[in-house]
Amino acid sequence: MTGLANSQYQWFWWIAPILVVSALGVIAALSGGYVRKVLIPRVKGRRVD
Fold first, then answer.
1. What is the pLDDT of residue 22?
2. Residue 10 pLDDT
3. What is the pLDDT of residue 21?
4. Alpha-carbon distance 40 to 46, whole Å?
5. Lesser CB count within 10 Å: N end or C end of the chain?
6. 41 near 33, Cβ under 8 Å?
7. Looking at the predicted structure, is the pLDDT value of residue 49 above 70?
8. Alpha helix locations (H) across the chain?
9. Residue 6 per-residue DSSP state
10. Sign of CA dihedral 19, 23, 28, 33
11. pLDDT tens digits, one per residue of 3-40
């Protein structure tokens, strides 16, 4: 039984960094939007709907 080094799984090695960077970008965008839309107005004393 061969592991992930099998030639059938080689596609994973070039796409993995792209998937990780994309996931981190989505997390950063969601976090930034939450901070901008919810946390900053709450700190400034405005009502958040």
1. 98
2. 75
3. 97
4. 9
5. N
6. no
7. no
8. 11-34, 40-44
9. S
10. positive
11. 666 777 777 788 889 999 999 999 999 999 999 999 88
